[in-house]
């Protein structure tokens, strides 16, 4: 037993330690255990602190993102509802909302949107990390090129409006001159903004960017509503002055009352009527410009804060190589449709009221449209059949641009569906008596079929991976691998000849398979080219004034004028936009084919 604790105990060298030494060893082990536990606990706490910080940061970011989306959505909804109320009120003479009142509201939102776009351009140019990622699918060159083209034509329309409204300054509001001036500046700023920044995935000032983009979207939609309403009233309103001999179509109305509404105010120069007719025919381009800008602003809004995948977009080039039939037939269809449309419009705008000639013009228009939609339906069926034997993978990557394309395609087609089904009900209910009613019924039924087939073809094409040409790689069999029936001397002869007996291609792509692949690609390109040209002519005719819905009065008598005018004025703008959007989507499918 250890007696003197100041000296080292000798029992530690033996295998039988004394009681105090055993207690000392036990206390030491206990302290070390506590110390190690404390160290581990401290390490665990320190390791968990970053996780807690990261999770709390993510929660704050998610709350900020939701707050930005909600606030931007509130801004958009309020501007749209207020704009819709003002546009609807100014459309009727018995409501005390004048055109200058509406234009003051438009000037305010145009100026606010222009100021924000200038701020965005300056801010992103000065900040290095404001835009780190780009969405390669958003804002392709051909879409931005279409925006520039429509923007240029819209600027020309504003110049004609300014030249026309200046002649009425002595007796009308100066706001009518100020509005096209502000709109012209807005179009210049917005076109540059969307051309340069359409692919941006903004990472800084996200909430401000979301609100600004929703302001841009709602401003363009209010402009679209204003232009559509004014253009529709030119076609369907009845003049309220005595001596009216105009048909229900109101085709001559816009010449005398285009945006002025007061016959006592006379133009101070002789070119007013010429400018009126000129800018009236530029309305369709301004309408499409507003819709193009709205769609691009929406995609930018969806991309705010988005981390886009790099190198996810395939480099696809436009080429008309190896296709001939589709473009040629499509161009022929466009020129034929233009010829019949011009004859039809000239006959409808004549002052004489020869009913038989007008009926013949309407019949020619119906027949031409029946031929167009029939050929387009057959082409869509061929394209859908090719997709059945096409084994390309479906696109799995989520992209806001593609989702928007599909949503707009289906949503816009509802306008033409509505008009067609209303016509079908009217024709069937009245018995479809007469050749014009029979043609109208056939056109409406074929239009429904064509819309369904084309939507399926375009949506399926947008969700397919692009074709990739894989160069065949020759795989030469090893001549030194002996088979049981071969002799070494035979192998030597084969090697000295330098020509393998058989040549395989990588991934099993034989020449026959490559031929089939090229054949399917050609057919899809032919179908896309023909459908694209068909949609162009179906956009041109209603966009530039064709209104067979009022020139043929069966639906007007069946539904009464006010109800039928409401159906057409709501559905037709969406149908016109559907055709232009189909052109853009078919071009995308053409590139992927």
Automatic annotation (TrEMBL):
A GO CC annotation given for this chain: plasma membrane
Pfam families tied to this protein: Otopetrin (PF03189)
Keyword set, alphabetical order: Cell membrane, Hydrogen ion transport, Ion channel, Ion transport, Membrane, Transmembrane, Transmembrane helix, Transport
Domain of life: Eukaryota
Membrane-spanning intervals of the chain: 69-92, 104-122, 142-165, 177-196, 208-226, 280-301, 322-344, 364-387, 408-429, 441-459, 523-541, 561-578
Region named Disordered: 37-56
Localization: Cell membrane
GO molecular function: proton channel activity
Membrane topology reported for the UniProt record: Multi-pass membrane protein
Family: Belongs to the otopetrin family.
Protein's name in the database: Otopetrin 2
Species: Acanthochromis polyacanthus (spiny chromis)
């Amino acid at each position: 037993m250890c007696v003197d604790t100041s000296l080292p105990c000798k029992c530690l060298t033996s295998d039988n330690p004394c009681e105090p030494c055993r207690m000392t060893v036990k206390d030491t082990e206990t302290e070390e255990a506590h110390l190690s536990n404390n160290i581990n606990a401290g390490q665990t706490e320190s390791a968990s602190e970053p996780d807690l910080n990261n999770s709390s940061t993510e929660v704050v970011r998610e709350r900020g993102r939701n707050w930005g989306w909600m606030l931007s959505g509130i801004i958009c909804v309020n501007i749209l509802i207020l704009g819709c109320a003002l546009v609807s009120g100014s459309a009727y003479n018995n409501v005390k909302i004048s055109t200058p009142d509406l234009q003051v509201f438009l000037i305010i939102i145009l100026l606010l949107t222009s100021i924000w776009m200038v701020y965005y351009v300056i801010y992103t140019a000065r900040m290095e990390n404001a835009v780190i990622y780009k969405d390669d699918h958003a804002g392709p060159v051909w879409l931005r090129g279409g925006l520039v083209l429509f923007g240029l034509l819209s600027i020309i329309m504003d110049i004609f409006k300014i030249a026309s409204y200046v002649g009425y300054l002595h007796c009308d509001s100066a706001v009518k001159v100020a509005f096209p001036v502000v709109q012209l500046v807005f179009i210049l700023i917005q076109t540059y903004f969307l051309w340069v920044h359409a692919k941006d995935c903004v990472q800084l000032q996200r909430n401000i960017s979301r609100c600004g983009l929703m302001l841009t979207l709602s401003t363009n939609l209010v402009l679209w509503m204003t232009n559509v309403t004014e253009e529709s009233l030119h076609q369907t309103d009845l003049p309220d002055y005595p001596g009216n001999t105009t048909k229900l179509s109101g085709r001559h109305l816009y010449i005398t009352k285009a945006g002025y509404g007061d016959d006592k105010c006379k133009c101070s120069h002789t070119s007013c009527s010429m400018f009126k007719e000129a800018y009236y025919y530029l309305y369709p381009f301004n309408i499409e410009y507003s819709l193009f800008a709205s769609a691009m602003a929406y995609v930018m809004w969806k991309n705010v804060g988005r981390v886009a995948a790099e190198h996810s977009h395939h480099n696809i080039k436009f080429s008309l190589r190896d296709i001939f039939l589709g473009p040629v037939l499509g161009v022929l269809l466009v020129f034929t449709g233009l010829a019949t449309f011009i004859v039809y419009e000239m006959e409808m705008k004549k002052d004489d009221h020869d009913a038989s000639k007008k009926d013949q013009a309407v019949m020619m228009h119906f027949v031409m449209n029946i031929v167009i939609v029939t050929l387009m339906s057959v082409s869509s069926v061929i394209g859908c059949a090719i997709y059945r034997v096409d084994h390309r993978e479906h696109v799995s990557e989520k992209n806001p641009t593609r989702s928007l394309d599909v949503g707009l395609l289906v949503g816009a087609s509802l306008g033409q569906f509505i008009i067609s089904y209303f016509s079908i009900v009217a024709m069937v209910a009245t018995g479809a008596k007469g050749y014009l009613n029979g043609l109208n019924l056939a056109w409406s039924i074929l239009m429904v079929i064509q819309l369904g087939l084309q939507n399926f073809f375009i949506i399926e094409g947008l969700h397919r991976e692009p074709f990739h040409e894989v160069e065949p790689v020759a795989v030469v069999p090893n001549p030194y691998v002996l088979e049981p029936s071969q002799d070494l001397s035979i192998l030597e002869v084969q090697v000295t000849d330098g020509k393998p007996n058989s040549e395989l291609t990588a991934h099993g792509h034989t020449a026959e398979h490559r031929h089939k692949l090229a054949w399917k690609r050609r057919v899809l390109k032919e179908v896309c080219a023909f459908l694209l040209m068909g949609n162009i002519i179906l956009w041109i005719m209603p966009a530039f004034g064709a209104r067979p819905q009022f020139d043929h009065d069966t639906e007007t008598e069946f539904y009464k004028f006010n109800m039928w005018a409401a159906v057409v004025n709501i559905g037709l703008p969406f149908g016109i936009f559907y055709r232009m959007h189909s052109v853009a989507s078919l071009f995308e499918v053409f590139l992927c084919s």
